[in-house]
């Protein structure tokens, strides 16, 4: 799967049933040694696309449960 295939998909928290963001409006943390994606960083943006502040959250790549046609379901580790 290519990054382009993931862009535009909604990120959904399976535990809370809430929308976390849209992939493409996020950053990826990539391990420089392995080249693997470690996590998705979700920035806190307002409705107008302006950044609200320095608040962001991370979803570990291993917490992704399903990548569907329109959305990505994640089950974040509850630790």
TrEMBL record:
SUPFAM superfamilies xrefs: PRC-barrel domain
Residue stretches making up the PRC-barrel domain: 1-78
InterPro entries linked: PRC-brl_dom, PRC_barrel-like_sf, Spore_YlmC/YmxH
Domain of life: Bacteria
Coiled-coil intervals, chain numbering: none
Family matches, as PANTHER family: PRC-BARREL DOMAIN-CONTAINING PROTEIN, SPORULATION PROTEIN YLMC-RELATED
Name listed for the protein in its UniProt record: YlmC/YmxH family sporulation protein
């Amino acid at each position: 799967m290519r990054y382009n295939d993931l862009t535009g998909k909604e990120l959904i928290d399976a535990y809370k049933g809430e929308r976390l963001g849209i992939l493409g409006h996020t950053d990826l943390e990539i391990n420089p040694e392995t080249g693997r994606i470690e996590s998705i960083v979700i920035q806190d943006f307002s409705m107008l696309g302006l950044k609200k502040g320095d608040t962001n959250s991370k979803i570990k790549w291993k917490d992704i449960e399903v990548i569907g046609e329109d959305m990505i379901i994640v089950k974040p580790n509850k630790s």
